[in-house]
């Protein structure tokens, strides 16, 4: 293979006449009309740490970009800046956990899942230590290209025995998952939404509260059941609103805990009413929520019509996030179009 | 777990005899399996004897005692040596020796924390111990616990980038409660360590990274004791390292002479001979 043949040719996209600039590292995820909450993780952690002195925070030079700076400013004595060294970050978190602390270690999802995997596997998971790994830029939430797009983090950590995995949808989930992570006596990997995070779920379902390991119906519907996690629940809810005009009735089952998966609820809902079942995830279609749901259904003999919305098995392009979400099928319009096309 | 028959109190037996006992137990365990990292065990026995019977504070009957000095074995494949030391220390019952590496044994071939009393961490994936030790040292300081963290690593682990992340961090956090022991036998799987990544002056390199660094003959108990005392007695706010130059297979001359000795091949009939040679060298 020649080098020239290995290099991807640059082909300018002509998706629209107006070009959108690649936005800041963390683009706003807020859809139109939702209220936002600033740094829900940082504030939830700080509040909890005031009541629980076992909690400490660590970052590898990304506290500002994981909202851990809120905790660091409130409790500088309990914050450890570990420098740009992710292998150390998780090893040291393991050492602190051995001495009775509950460390929250933050970085970007790509660095935890790819760079530090062996350290998370052996120093933390194999010994079932209560290290809480909280990672920004999950899936396709930055336009910076594959170096920062963690499109396979769920697949990587699903393969790790004992690891609990959370993919939150919004500010309610992010704030709610923090005490649940502490209450769970073991390692947890949580995807993080940071900055101004929309508040979505309680608007659709006022009594919604995050519960570790529980899938919850956010919206009922007779034609289609969308089983979604993370920001794709937000997209699915907005798509469902849009599809009312087409007389398509969409239910949305939110699955914020990827592992352990709430297979009882998923099986019960998928078996009910002959609906088209669609999974939606901000992750590669390889090894994430979609395949986990497919496995849970098939092993129980439940075989509805089934489709998956997710990222392709590819290194994704760089660009503006709205452009990329449209390109890869994660935007509200594209989710709605896909659902209609499958009916 | 408490040994039924505990060894005599520490002060009653010389360190040389302790080291000899560690070597003998390791040989007996390797004989059980017909294999094992016996070269490393024989080489590091003096370092373990000086650590467990001179430097470390622990309670054999309570391996989890909060006040104990933590001893991390980063090099999981050296487990056979640490099991021997833990038996000698009365932390592991000696009657379990014959179970080494067997199904259902508490002493697997590679050290794991969940299997063995006194095995503080799961080593084996190299370059992990020192980073965990940094976190533990930070945790002990946070608790106001004066215990020390010892991390025993190999020269091969100097090639792992994670080691140097931890080295820099220990300096950054002024971890004066961390003592790193490097078993420098200059042997790794494919050949001499100095032919791979560990070339150069070792102590000056650690010194340049801000550590208090000593180099000793790791098979000289007096030198080890002096170095451990210096490391423990130092008042500088910096981490300490002792580079222990050791000889693989120390104490069994015909094995010492073997060329490629990262994983020493010992024929079935040679175990008895090795034990005989060791017996001849028993300290009086």
TrEMBL record, chain A:
Family: Belongs to the transketolase family.
UniProt-recorded name of the protein: Transketolase subunit B
Alphabetical UniProt keywords: Thiamine pyrophosphate
Cofactor(s) annotated in UniProt: thiamine diphosphate
PANTHER family: PYRUVATE DEHYDROGENASE E1 COMPONENT (PTHR43825), TRANSKETOLASE-LIKE PYRIMIDINE-BINDING DOMAIN-CONTAINING PROTEIN (PTHR43825:SF1)
Domain Transketolase-like pyrimidine-binding: 35-199
Keyword Transmembrane assigned: no
Tree of life domain: Bacteria
Cross-referenced InterPro entries: PDH/Transketolase (IPR051157), THDP-binding (IPR029061), Transketo_C/PFOR_II (IPR009014), Transketolase-like_Pyr-bd (IPR005475), Transketolase_C (IPR033248)
From TrEMBL, chain B:
Superkingdom of origin organism: Bacteria
Taxonomy of the source species: Bacteria, Pseudomonadati, Pseudomonadota, Alphaproteobacteria, Rhodobacterales
Similarity-based family: Belongs to the transketolase family.
Domain (Transketolase N-terminal) ranges: 26-272
Protein name (record): Transketolase subunit A
Keywords: Thiamine pyrophosphate
SUPFAM superfamilies recorded: Thiamin diphosphate-binding fold (THDP-binding) (SSF52518)
One family name in Pfam for this protein: Transketolase_N
UniProt cofactor(s): thiamine diphosphate
Organism: Roseovarius azorensis
